[in-house]
Amino acid sequence: MSQPWDMMLQIAYLAIFLFIAMVIRRAIPRFSRFRIPDAILAGVLALIAGPGILGLIPFETTRLTTLVYHLLAVGFIALSLKRDTRKGRGRTALSAGLFNVVSYCIQGAVGLGITLVLINTLYPDLFPAFGLLLPFGFAQGPMAGEMAVEWANKISPA
Hints:
The chain has helices at 6-27, 29-33, 38-49, 61-81, 93-120, 133-140, 143-155. The protein is mostly helical and 158 residues long. It folds into 2 domains: 1-82, no CATH class; 91-158, no CATH class.
């Protein structure tokens, strides 16, 4: 049974991983050069330290899904409230749309390539659409977590 403070503990773990990712990006110039976002680096660190690999941090996936669902909406609202400080001509709708589609395609292709390599070498039972989860998360936002659970249930029902 979960305790009332478990949600705050999950948020504290996430904050710690975000802080560690920020320190790593500032301390190691290679990470800054590749422009890996702090959130992605923190997610990789949490994945490694979480119950799936090392088991050091007891994450509850249901709580994390709830957090992502609600906090991603808050993040997008905060982004829309930001004042545009650029001078001159900004991006047009067409260029922004093309940029988004091309970046999703590249992320999907790289993710599928990595997934195929992992399936053929280290993890033969890996969820086949694993490589699509990152671009799917960027494109779909909070619903990506729910869709990933549905995908996993359809592919490998428990």
